[in-house]
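Sequence and structure are no longer studied apart. To make this concrete, we show below a single chain and its fold as tokens.
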Amino acid sequence: MNAVEIKNLTKKYKDFSLENLSLTLPNGCIMGLIGENGAGKSTVIKSILGIISPDSGNIEIFGKKASADIKQNIGVVLDEIGLPNEFNIKEIRAVMRNSFSNWQDDVFTDYIKKFNLPEKKAFKSFSKGMKMKTGIAIALSHDAKLLILDEPTSGLDPVVRDEIVDILNDFTRDESHSILISSHIVSDLEKLCDYIAFLHNGHLMLCEEKDRLLEQYGFISTTPEILKELDKSAVIGVKSTKWGVEAIIDREKVPHTFEVKPITIEELFIFMVKEENR
């Protein structure tokens, strides 16, 4: 069974369109939605959660269309946590206890202690990192099988971001747990994800296992003349330098005589976007 399956999702706005997007998150895996701001990541997530209505397409969660019962099994953390500013942790706990049928008070208390969150201060006084940790504590305290997170590390310092990545890794040690997480901070997702989906201007550029991407693509440094001799389908993106050109290539489509260097997911994404824009 798949945790999330999206088929032909389309949502049109006046100045933006998400076009015919299909992707699958296998159960027990972590998928990262990568894209610059405005690429369509939040539109995908809000469509899954029923916050917005797609123009067309089909979305299934655990093999079923979304319902109130299924949503009890989803932990959600959006960029804006959306808790009442005047509430403290005790009041937030009381609201959540009445919101989720499978709320785990002891688990929530453990996370509050682990995150060193003040229980008596109003939520409005929390830093960005503290607010995000509160949202994650809630998401992890009602026996969720699927976490959906929209830019959870945006605006956070590197230490807090790394701490959140560790928490999410711990969550998926249970093979029945899955995560769909969006971010434009590609380095965070590279540490965390099994699958990577690239979004650009409302289009899905690719969706593949992370390890497969790192195996398939690499860097070469060469001259423009030699590059022209390669199969065009082998070249994913090109950058000119004062010494020649750098290119991201499909390793399977270039001669073995080339010295191919490894790439990061972030480099692959940037090169692909620049090539698409060109």
